[in-house]
Design goal:
Largest sheet: 7 strands, mixed
Helix content: under 10%
Number of strands: 11
Number of helices: 1
Structural class: mainly beta
Shape: globular
Order of helices and strands: EEEEEEEEEHEE
Strand content: over 45%
Radius of gyration: 14 Å
Oligomer: single chain
């Protein structure tokens, strides 16, 4: 299994970026997908998730209204559109795949890094002030 994240870079406050994560070696449509981020000296934190079935989404409060997660099951790819970027968004961004048995398990596990099955290598986003 491989998750290949891309699209990071150096931008200014207020700019936009679109991250992509291409998956291979797994039945992509059977997994929920998530984006996490980790800033220097901080723990990895949840950013957004998208369910495998109906594509419903969930966001951390810190990015709600600015970031949009989406997926293309035909292309085995998940995206994170990031608008109105702030310096506090600076971090390495990781995509991850989550298998789950039922809706209850998804709602319980979607924000927990330890519950995800597979991880990408990360892509660095730096937002200058």
């Amino acid at each position: 299994v491989q998750l290949q994240a891309s699209g990071g870079g150096l931008v200014q406050t207020g700019d936009s970026l679109r991250l992509s994560c291409a998956a291979s070696g797994l039945a992509f449509s059977n997994y929920a997908m998530g984006w996490f981020r980790q800033a220097p000296g901080k723990e990895r934190e949840f950013v957004a998730s998208i369910r495998r079935t109906d594509g419903s989404t969930y966001y951390a409060d810190s990015v709600k209204g600015r970031f949009t997660i989406s997926r293309d099951n035909a292309e085995n790819t998940v995206y994170l559109q990031m608008n109105s970027l702030k310096p506090e968004d600076t971090a390495v961004y990781y995509c991850a795949a989550l298998s789950y048995r039922d809706s209850g398990a998804y709602y319980r596990d979607r924000t927990q890094p330890s519950k995800y099955d597979y991880w990408g290598q990360g892509t660095l986003v730096t937002v200058s002030s």
